[in-house]
From TrEMBL:
InterPro entries: FAD/NAD-bd_sf (IPR036188), FAD/NAD-binding_dom (IPR023753), NADH-Q_oxidoreductase (IPR051169). This is NADH dehydrogenase-like protein YumB. It comes from the Bacteria. Keywords: FAD, Flavoprotein, Oxidoreductase. Its cofactor is FAD. The keyword Membrane does not apply. Belongs to the NADH dehydrogenase family.
Length: 409
């Protein structure tokens, strides 16, 4: 009898945990497992703000897929998914053509969402993947390197606008504020000439944290030179400036900037929408067993899924923490899926949230109530990062890529 074919799309948190854990729950003769990803490496999206600012080499945030999967059990195909043909159980790949499946796990992750802001896609830079963050780092360095080489010194070249003060925006601001003094030293630029301006539509940053932690984060970032424009929406992004609108009065202003980094939100991978799935902001409303309604053999996890939260009328937020739990849940239940048995709904166990404010500083809430700030929160963030590496590739991977150990570069 032919073994059922399980196909995993995308090697982010969801895809990698699925590819490493499924072989532990399924015998060799129970199923074949294939993983498709556009690169031969997995990158840690949760670290992307660091290489974007240049405070961590991009290579530290990536792991060769073949170094962590069991290639005797999982076939890895390096290719780009261009379409999912859900009615014929086939996936179209850019180079290898069609590949068929019996069970599909879609974990193609997130993309930057620009909500139709004029010029943002063309002129803004997004924290989206390893290539996009390398471009941000290089772009900022380029602007610094040009400063003394133009006839008329253009101070605006040194202005950096960060659009959006959610988690990604704040974590990037923290890294950037730490990196700027280094860049100033390297390029002989007076630190006072460099502006880092965060434009946030809401009255403050990070609304999910309580006032005390938010006030701490704002004061720490301001002390490192970040300027906040709260209650302003970016309306347009041009090559050398952004147009912002004060929400209360609708008055507009211009901010000249050599660099605009957009951190105003994310959506699910466009491939899912292009393939005809019903989506909201690129995300499929999955069932509480993470299946696509009407397609019992297709599962969506991570940032391409809107996962129902039984305690709220809104889906769970899209985070790596929930994605990892979804992949573990699905891997454990896959034997039941293959046998046509029922299984318990997915429930997210929220361990807490930590937002970095740059090296050695952070804010967080863990286990539902314990507030952390400063070095204790920063240490917790490192523990979370290393815990994932441990889960994925054991102690060897922690020693090679982890944040807490001394052996890593
Ligand atoms: P992703 O991590 O986006 O991975 C998707 C994978 O699919 C990638 O390998 C990509 O190359 C591949 N892929 C994409 N398109 C194709 C294609 N067409 N063909 C083949 N392969 C493809 N969450 C937390 O819980 N804690 C945090 O501290 C945290 N920090 C974050 C910091 C930053 C700067 C950002 C941007 C996000 C952070 N998040 C955090 C959110 C978290 O990164 C996402 O929720 C998580 O990455 C989702 O995992 P995923 O597996 O769905 O997708
Ligand atoms: P987000 O949607 O959480 O935040 C985007 C921010 O941009 C919001 O505060 C919004 O008000 C603002 N914004 C949107 N349009 C704007 C405009 N035109 N002008 C000005 N401001 C505008 O997006 P994110 O920060 O990229 O986070 C995406 C997901 O990843 C979330 O689920 C988040 O929880 C997760 N994440 C988690 C962590 C962490 O746990 N440490 C870190 C990064 C991201």
């Amino acid at each position: 009898m032919n073994k059922p074919k399980i196909l995993i799309l995308g090697a982010g948190y969801g895809g990698m945990i699925s590819a490493t854990k499924l072989p532990k729950y399924l015998g060799k003769n129970e199923a074949t497992i294939t993983l498709v990803n556009k690169h031969n490496y997995h990158y840690q999206s949760t670290w992307l703000h660091e290489p974007a600012a240049g405070t961590l080499p991009a290579d530290r945030a990536r792991i060769l897929i073949k170094d962590v999967i069991d290639t005797n059990r999982v076939e890895f195909i390096q290719d780009t998914v261009t379409l999912i043909n859900k009615d014929e159980n086939k996936v179209v790949l850019e180079k290898s053509g069609e590949i068929d499946y019996d069970y599909l796990i879609i974990s193609l992750g997130f993309e930057s969402a620009t909500f139709g802001i004029k010029g943002m896609k063309e002129n803004g830079l997004a924290i989206e993947n390893l290539n996009s963050v390398r471009q941000i780092r290089e772009h900022i360095e380029y602007q610094f390197s040009c400063y003394h080489c133009t006839e008329k010194k253009e101070d605006e070249r040194l202005n950096i606008v960060v659009g959006g003060g959610g988690f990604t925006g704040v974590e990037f601001l923290g890294e950037l504020a730490n990196r700027i003094p280094e860049l100033c030293k390297e390029y002989d630029i007076d630190r006072k000439l460099v502006r880092i301006i965060n434009v946030e539509g809401s009255p403050s940053i990070l609304p999910m944290f309580d006032k005390e932690l938010v006030a701490y984060a704002i004061s720490r970032l301001e002390s490192k030179g970040v300027e906040f424009k709260f209650g302003y929406l970016i309306k347009e992004c041009l090559g050398n400036k952004v147009i912002i609108e004060k929400k209360s009065t609708k008055e507009t202003e211009e901010i000249m900037a050599g660099t605009v980094v957009w951190t105003g939100g994310v959506r699910g991978n466009h491939i899912v929408e292009d393939s005809g799935f019903d989506v909201v902001r690129g995300r499929v409303n999955v069932t509480n067993q993470l299946r696509v309604p009407g397609y019992d053999n297709i599962f969506v996890i991570g940032d391409c899924a809107n996962t129902p939260d039984p305690n709220s009328d809104r889906p769970y937020p899209t985070t790596a923490q929930i994605t990892i739990q979804q992949a573990l849940y699905l891997s454990k239940n896959m034997p039941k899926v293959l046998n046509g048995e029922d299984y318990e709904p997915f429930v997210f166990n929220n361990m807490g949230t930590v937002a970095s404010l740059g090296h050695g500083d952070a804010i967080g809430i863990i286990f539902g109530k314990t507030k952390l700030k400063g070095t204790s929160a920063a240490a917790m963030k490192k523990i979370i990062d290393d815990r994932y590496l441990l889960k994925l590739g054991g102690i060897g991977l922690v020693l090679k890529k982890g944040k807490l150990n001394l052996l890593s570069k």
